[in-house]
C-alpha cells in the first residue's frame, strides 16, 4: 500500500527538523523559559500588591520586589526576542537546505525521465512552495511546544495553591485544542487547494513571461491576461476559504479562553465576598491576585498556537505540492557526478528496427530504421528540413523515446546510467540554450573548473574569439537567457565551443554551421574533424560541403534512413 500523502508530508517535515540545528533548539527553549519566568513575575507582582494593600507596607520596603519585577520583564522580553530571531534563523537554514536539495535533485534527474516538471512549475516548487515552510519552523513549532507544555506547567503550579482554579485550568485548557482539531480537519483540505492554486498561478505566470515576445507578436496578450486573471481569481477564492476557517478556529478559542478567565474571576470574587466556601484556608489577596494574573496566561500559549496553526497545514500542503511537481521529495542531495572527467573512447552505435515519433506521438518520423556506425567513424546525416534529423540525434542520447533496439557500444540505451551517458556523449542541439552570464561562463559550463586558457582555446576553435573581440567586454560580455544579443550562428558557435572542453566518445552535432558563410564553415569543420579524430561523430547538416568531409553519409527521406553516396567535395547545399 502506498502511504497516505498526508503522512509522507508529515514525515518529510519531521526529517527537516534536524536541519534547524541550534537555532531551532533556542527558538523552542527560549519561550518555555520565558513562561517559567512569567510565573515568578506574576507571583512577585501579586506579592507586592498583597503586601501593599493588605499589610500596608511602605513603598521603600517593596522596592527590591518591584526591581525584581522590572528585571524579570526585561529578561522575558530579551528571551522573546532571542527566540524569535533564532526561529527565523532556523527557518532560513531549513529552507536553504531544502532549496539546495531540490535544486540538485532536479539537476541530477534524467532528462529522459517522463513527466518532467515544466520550468515554471519547478520554479514555483523551489521558490514559492519552499517559502511555505517558513511559518512552520519560525513560529508554529515553538508555539506548539509552548501550548503543549506551558498550560500543564502552570496548572501544576496552581493546583497545590488552589485546587479549584487548578482543576478549572486543567479541564478547560485541553478543550481548546480538541475543538480546534475538529475545525482543523477542514483547514487542511482548504489549504491544500490553496497551495495548488498558488502553484498553478505561478507556473502559468512564469511560463507566459518566458514566451512574452511570441505572445505579443501574435496578439495573444488579452487571452493570456484573461487566463492569468482567472488563475488569480481562483487563488483569491481559495485563500478566502482558508481565512474563513482560520477565523472560525480563533473564534472557538477565544470563546473558551474567555469562559475560563471569567470562571476564575467569578470564583475569586465569590470567595472574597464569602459566597463560596470551597477552600479550607482563607483566600489571601496575594493568592487571589496571582490566580487572576495567571488566568489569561494559561490560555495564551494556546492562543499563540491557534494563530500559527495554519502554518503547519501550509507547510504540509507546500511539501505535497513540491512532491506533486517534482515527482518525489528528495531526502538528501544527490551527488552531482563530475561528467567531464570520464574517458572519451570512441563509441559505436547501432539501430535496428527503430521507430521514432514526434513529441506528441501522433506521427512516426522514422520507421523501422537500421543504422550502424562503427567506433571512430564520422557520419553525415542528410535530409530535408522536418525529415527528422534532430529527432534521430536526440534519440541517440536518450532525449526521445524509441521503439526497437538502439545500442551504444553494444549496450541498449536504457542500460546506460544517466551520468555515464552524459559524460561520454556530447550533443550540440539545433537551438542550444545559453544562460544569462558571460560568454566565457557559458562555454565553461561544459567543464566545471576549466581554466581561462582552456576556455579561450575552445573559443578559438569554435570561431567565437573573432566575433567576441568586437563585443564590449570580449569573452566576458554578458549574454541573455536565450543568447539575446548574439545572432543564431554566433549562439550556435558559443554552444559548439563547449565541445572542445569535453572528452566525449560520441559527438552529435545538429547543424553546427547553419547560417555560416563558406570560409567560416570550412574553418570550424576542420577544427571539429581534428578534435573528433578517434571519436565517433554524427553531423546533421544541409551542407554538401560539410557532408563531403565525412567518412559516410546517411539520408532520411520519407521516414526511412538509407546510406547514400558521399557528395563530391565541392560546394553546394543538400
Ligand atoms: P529536422 O531536424 O530534420 O528538421 P526534426 O527532427 O526537428 O526535423 O522534426 C521531425 C518532425 O517532427 C518534423 O516534421 C516536425 O514537424 C515534427 N515535430 C517536431 N516537434 C513536434 C512537436 N512538438 N509536435 C509534433 N510534431 C513535431
Ligand atoms: Mg533539425
From TrEMBL:
Keywords: ATP-binding, Membrane, Nucleotide-binding, Transmembrane, Transmembrane helix. It is found in: Cell membrane. GO terms for biological process: cysteine transport. GO terms for molecular function: ABC-type transporter activity; ATP binding; ATP hydrolysis activity; ATPase-coupled lipid transmembrane transporter activity. It is a multi-pass membrane protein. The chain crosses the membrane at residues 21-43, 55-75, 140-161, 167-187, 245-270. It holds the Pfam family ABC_tran. CDD domains: ABC_6TM_AarD_CydD (cd18584). SMART domains: AAA. Residues 349-574 form the ABC transporter domain. Residues 25-314 form the ABC transmembrane type-1 domain. PROSITE patterns: ABC_TM1F, ABC_TRANSPORTER_1, ABC_TRANSPORTER_2. GO terms for cellular component: plasma membrane. SUPFAM superfamilies: ABC transporter transmembrane region, P-loop containing nucleoside triphosphate hydrolases. NCBIfam families: CydD (TIGR02857). Belongs to the ABC transporter superfamily. This is Thiol reductant ABC exporter subunit CydD. The gene is cydD.
